[in-house]
Task: inverse folding
């Protein structure tokens, strides 16, 4: 929605898509802290909030490209909450996911080019060539990487590369099986299933017919999208193949695969 006071507001009902949660983020538990009460609403705890802000930026970088706005989100969050963030927990998760070094590249960009000042807690020696590579990528990618015009191609290509490197299995078979398993759960119209998907149903059972209509729409939309999703895992559009292969090589240099 759009607010005259705050601008564009996105409401995320879950942190990441199924493939991302499984392959990119190893189904890591990201929410451990009590929600923080900040007046009229509750929000993530400080460390949970940082993990979400940073990994959300990583998600955009991997799937399309990173804008300077998202870099600033990460750097400003660190400046504001550095002393309160549980860095031991953060680095343990990022080390496991292979996204720790990328954080140090962003803090290097912050200190070198944006007048931020950080101590050794969030800084480390990084390859200057990699810093310049990320800067160039930021400059050419545009907001959310839209200028790269990857569509979903980079999303699937990175998922495939990371899955096969980690598991050594057939990515297309994995996606097909995952979609089939999800379909069985999706087709249920039981009250428990619908109340988990449509929280308004918990307020009154009289809203069940509305939830059924919502779910029918969801199923029809999913039926259209899923065959295309499986098809897209086989390969990417011809016009993007060279660009994606180049980007995957850069991600390998960054040790993010």
Result:
């Amino acid at each position: 929605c759009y607010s005259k006071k705050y601008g564009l507001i996105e409401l995320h009902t879950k942190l990441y898509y199924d493939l991302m949660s499984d392959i990119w983020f190893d189904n890591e538990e990201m929410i451990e802290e009590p929600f923080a009460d900040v007046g009229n609403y509750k929000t993530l705890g400080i460390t949970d909030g940082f993990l979400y802000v940073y990994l959300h930026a990583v998600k955009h970088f991997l799937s399309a490209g990173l804008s300077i706005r998202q870099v600033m989100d990460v750097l400003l969050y660190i400046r504001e909450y550095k002393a309160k963030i549980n860095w031991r927990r953060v680095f343990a998760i990022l080390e496991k996911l292979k996204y720790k070094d990328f954080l140090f590249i962003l803090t290097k960009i912050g200190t070198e080019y944006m007048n931020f000042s950080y101590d050794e807690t969030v800084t480390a020696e990084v390859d200057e060539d990699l810093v310049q590579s990320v800067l160039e990528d930021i400059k050419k990618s545009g907001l959310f990487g839209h200028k790269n015009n990857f569509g979903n191609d980079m999303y699937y290509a990175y998922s495939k590369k990371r899955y096969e490197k980690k598991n050594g299995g057939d990515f297309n078979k994995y996606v097909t099986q995952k979609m089939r398993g999800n379909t069985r759960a999706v087709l249920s119209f039981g009250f428990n299933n619908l109340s988990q998907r449509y929280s308004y149903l918990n307020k009154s059972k009289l809203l069940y017919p509305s939830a059924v209509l919502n779910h029918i729409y969801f199923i029809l939309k999913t039926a259209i999208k899923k065959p295309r999703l499986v098809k897209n895992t086989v390969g990417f559009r011809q016009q993007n193949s060279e660009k994606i292969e180049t980007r995957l090589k850069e991600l390998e240099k960054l040790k993010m695969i």
Notes: The two ends are 34 Å apart (CA to CA). The first strand starts at residue 2 and ends at 3. The chain has a mean pLDDT of 83.
